[in-house]
Design a protein that fits this description.
alpha+beta
């Protein structure tokens, strides 16, 4: 059986969480981001895409090929 190529995304925190709602702060923490300019690489699953959608105004996302 051939493995599917898993799509990955690089997520970078570009804005401060000061003044953001607690749900958004929790989402940033769950993604593994902490300080501004920190970044992580995650698989582009529907769960992660939904989390990115919640904090889209605070992060920058790019696909990794």
């Amino acid at each position: 059986m051939a493995k599917k190529k898993v799509e990955q995304v690089r997520i970078e925190l570009i804005k401060s969480m000061i003044g953001s709602k607690p749900k958004q702060r929790g989402t940033i923490k769950a993604l593994g981001l902490g300080k501004i300019n920190s970044s992580v690489v995650r698989e582009a699953t529907p769960v992660v895409k939904g989390m990115i959608n919640v904090v889209s105004h605070l992060v920058k996302v790019e696909e990794i090929k």
